């Protein structure tokens, strides 16, 4: 599988970057505006009712609690959307991959670059969001800089899953299904908004299997400046997702595109 | 001579369906070669194997003397492909399409810019350099597709139905550009449904059907040996005329409402025409289209 990979894949990544920068003003607004809105709504609104949350024995304000959860969720949404809807449009409607496969690029080059691009977008969103959240004082620095490599790791994991789904999805409308069954429940039950310990034992056990749970945990710990050995296991869990789903994604796309 | 493409008993199966079923093909350097056939004849499957997109199911395939299965990356670096579908990058401008494509071939930036400017001029697209690809008309989009396939200065260009859907002006303009490229020494492999296009452009062509080669040769040789010089075309002939034509002893082909009589001599057909009721027939030179229809039949494909 790696035999067909070449450094040329960065040309595909650069193509996506070029397109992204053509409309950078539009692309930059959501990650800048969203956290401000959430902090206002949850911090000033809901936060006043909830008060504080206990994280590994210490009390944390509700806004400080959810802020890193929002970063983690944004990583998931960014990379998952990029490698489902956007990759599907490029593959199916724009025939961009077909054109690339008439050049010295391999299928592995193209697919890998797409996943790397999804992770890059997740990192850019984290950088923008993180800056706003840090400006409100909810990210402990410099520990909070670990959010960037964590976003890359999360982006690769969710991007690989997304690309695998793109490889086996017949039509673009069908992406609603994994989003409804997988992404939205994960968004709600991965500990971004409330500690999963509060759930019934079976549900909190299930929540701990979700990749977003591990990304949220790791993001929270570095944001609060309390990173411990636990984030190593969180990172390993996310890396495991990439290791499993990246080969599946390449295989599904090869089956789909090469006839 | 120096063969650019060499295929021996090339095969491509999709499950039980034999898309390409033992095709032999040899394209020499500098040739303008045509691949003709009805829909589903195996043209696109053949082309995709040549540029290393589809793996072959059997036989041998060498491009520039190298095995496509193992050396596809080197081979693709020397090939330009103009695909059937408009596969331009709609997220980019006209010029960016050329520059980004050049980057896939690892062309240095300065060289890519020089090449893009040169191609925009050659295809009269300079005024559109900054335009969005989505705004291009069909003819302009095709010109850009062709320009893009030349960005890496290929030795071989593969054109899959390059003029489908174009108006006559755009088509003739594209033909002129293709002739100029051929004069520059480029090897060109073309598939088309337009027999006029194949006859006017190709040095040699093969007509294929059901994944196999039916005949091959220069357009004139193929017309000579399969249709002769002249054709008397009878449209909706009444039964007596039909019988008279069929009884003439000449080579005929019955396409239902059209009946064709072939001959090596115009005089012979003119004499036959005079014997038939007027107004139901025309005498004309034989064309590649006659050859094509005779060999591949008239039933609709797909």
What does this structure look like?
Chain A has 259 residues and is mainly alpha-helical. Chain A is 74% helix and 3% strand. Chain A has one domain. In chain A, helix 3 (62-93) packs across helix 9 and helix 9 (211-223) packs across helix 10 (230-257). Chain B is of the alpha/beta class and 302 residues long. Chain B folds into 2 domains: 3-223, Rossmann fold, CATH 3.40.50; 228-286, Alpha-Beta Plaits (2-Layer Sandwich), CATH 3.30.70. Helix content of chain B is 37%, strand content 28%. Chain B has a 6-stranded mixed β-sheet, with helices on both faces. A 4-stranded antiparallel β-sheet of chain B has the order 2-1-4-5. In chain B, strands 12-13-11-14 form a 4-stranded antiparallel β-sheet, with helices on one face. In chain B, helix 3 packs across helix 4 (109-122) and helix 8 crosses helix 11. The two termini of chain B are 38 Å apart. The model of chain B has no long low-confidence stretch (mean pLDDT 92). At the A-B interface, helix 1 and helix 4 of A face helix 2 and helix 3 of B.
